[in-house]
Design goal:
Length: 349
Amino acid sequence: MTATSFVNPAAKSTCRVLIVGATGFMGQFVAEASLLTGRPTYLLVRPGSVSPSKAKSIKNLQDKGAIILHGLINDKEVMEKILKEHEIDVVISAVGGAKILDQLTLIEAMKTSGTIKRFLPSEFGHDVDRADPVEPGRAMYIDKRRVRRSIEASGIPYTYICCNSIASWPYYDNTHPSEVVPPLDQFQIYGDGTVKAYFVAGTDIGKFTMKTVDDIRTLNKCVHFRPTCNLYNINELASLWEKKIGKTLPRVTVTENDLLAAAAENRIPQSIVASFTHDIFIKGCQINFQIDGPQDVEVSILYPDETFITLDECFNDFLVKVDRKSISTDEITTTSPMAESMAITATCA
């Protein structure tokens, strides 16, 4: 029996998915992946006007087949009606930190709707029951743990997605580092730079998340993303980028105390990111435990025939975005035909 034979192929086209927070950073990857599978995909959008960027995201997803529904997840009556009327099977939440506890009302609505076969709450990071960041990141994890306990008490089937870090340069003071190219002036190295972490491209997070929603092996489990091809420490990350740009950049140490001080400033969201950076690259929260418990599964073992986008490939994409005035064409070095092609594309842009 193959690894993929546990999944019912028919469910991929009939499972009705509601995504909450689809216009956010992570939600867009999940929504795109759901639409690619051909599942009926519904997006919950806040009533009233939205920002131009969110409106553009909604229109883009709608053009690809998404069905837009209006409502708020902390409105139990409205959510019950939506879930029942549209016979939603799976709810995926990708709401931001300020709305984490709004999911408690959503859970109550799902309990009474009678349609829900799986709930994926807003996780998409570390295993919040194992990681232990300093404040203010700890407060977010406490909220996420509270949501987990509420789901488990409700009896709603669930899957927790623990995808670790986004494949990008991990700036400690930026909310979404994958939107920013790696450094061109100097590297900030956290501690001694030897603590490793797992990096996953956003499209892969979306792809593998959608594989789990009707896989019986992920029912009531934590699904961990640990691609061995993307296990890097910060020094290795810096060396990879230096190869791409053909330059050696100075390295400046950001000490543990520096990160703790940035976290203690309590500037939101920068201090939350600093607290997570400390947990990852000083305390090693992604690698300091084994996933051998009965509630843990690893995505590469579940889907051994599927490949991950490598961090090397992701850095090729960043290379395309680099300002060509900052790096002259003859300084660019590439390590593969794909990288060479991307360098040529960047030069022509």
